[in-house]
Amino acid sequence: MTDAAELSGLGNAFASEARAGALPPHQNSPQEVPFGLYAEQLSGSAFTAPRAENRKTWMYRLRPSAAHPAFRRLDDLAPGWSTGPFSEPPAANRLRWNPLPAPAGEVDFFAGVSTMAGNGSPDAQLGLSVHRYAFNTSMGDAFFNADADMLFVPQAGTLRLVTELGVMEVPSGWIGHVPRGMRMRIEVLGAATGYVCENYGASFVLPELGPIGANGLANPHDFLSPRAAYEEAATPTRLIQKLGGCFYATDLPRSPFDVVAWRGNLVPYRYELARFNTINTVSFDHPDPSIFTVLTSPSHRIGTANCDFVIFPPRWMVAEHTFRPPWFHRNVMSELMGLIHGAYDAKATGFLPGGVSLHNCMSAHGPDRATYEKAVAEPMEPKKIDGTLAFMFETCRPFRVPVSAFRCGSRQDDYDAVWHGFA
């Protein structure tokens, strides 16, 4: 895959064409589109949203996407996939899960998704759901999510996301984002495990830098979108949509990935997490984990996120006379963590790549006893935390855990014991 352009500021307009001259030169919807293509706009925000928040893309395609028969309900497509509002009460206890087992037989994305937790609802356009996936077979259908944006966090294996605007390969160590409503086909190169966040609320944007200044954290020019690419063959395709937590399907006589050219700022993108410029203290005390925010979905309260996507990458620890692992704390935000590879610096054992931990609002948590005893005894010299990559979805609302996740065999019944035995 080659990338079209930087996703500058996650909002500035840009364009790509798979055939030279397919983009209308001066206006978005001329009376006659080059090559007899059809102009179609995909809007990711209200028409009257402020300019800085307005998201749309014009597509120039072989046929209008409106040309399809009625959708029919699918009841058993993705039995492990749950959508808010969740009926269960918020999880009062700290929870942790082992990695998912490898899929048995041929499993596609729909069959391989397992919901871990969530809050809010797509109808209210707030909240999120976090899922794990384990699958080994590429999707044969096309799919679009009318409920949410989707942020993919591969743990192992490589995803190949075929979208209306082009194709993106997303290996472990990268993230991939597909906007709400954009058609895609989720393929896999071999087998894949990982995490995916359905964001019902405001779209992810880069956090403000404030006193950090112009440089640091994730840089806009490192977010990459695909080049325009289209499928011209008249291959019959089942198109699946997710709306209100339900799945529906219609049948097309062709591929829906027939966009020859596009321009706009509502686009899929990918980002390599190794490009994150980590900021840390060079004097004393451990900074808040918000300093590791890659993307944020704002809420109506300034400075309080519907969802923050935060990473804990390799970094130097140099603080003097300071307890260096994450400290004990209780927080108004709720935290769901995953581990991509290596070991997390606040847990000695039990938190494995592909696993999940959940600490809800005001739930007391922090380093386990082994990590604490090692940290208070080690010499205060510069130390590199290396060979690790963890992440967190942090939200202003408590997570609710579906019964399927609470009862699944990978949940650790003895998680509370990691904090036993402190002197």
Offer a quick outline of the entry.
This protein has 423 residues and is mostly beta strands.
Describe the protein's architecture and organization.
By secondary structure, the chain is mainly beta. The protein has 2 domains: about 5-10 and about 70-275, Jelly Rolls, CATH 2.60.120.10; about 275-420, Jelly Rolls (Sandwich). It is about 5% helix and about 35% strand. The protein is built from 3 helices and 25 strands. It has helices at about 110, 370-375, 405; strands at about 5, 15, 40-45, 55-60, 70-75, 95, 115-120, 125-135, 140-145, 150-165, 165-170, 175-180, 185-200, 225, 235-245, 245-250, 260-265, 270, 295-300, 305-310, 315, 335-340, 355-360, 385, 390-395. Strands 7, 8, 10, 11, 12, 13 and 18 form a 7-stranded antiparallel β-sheet that branches. A 6-stranded antiparallel β-sheet has the order 6-23-22-25-20-19, with no helix packed on it. Strands 2-17-4-3 form a 4-stranded antiparallel β-sheet, with no helix packed on it. The longest helix has 9 residues, at about 370-375. It is globular and about 75 Å long. It starts with a strand and ends in a 16-residue tail after the last helix. Mean pLDDT is about 95; it is low at about 1-10.
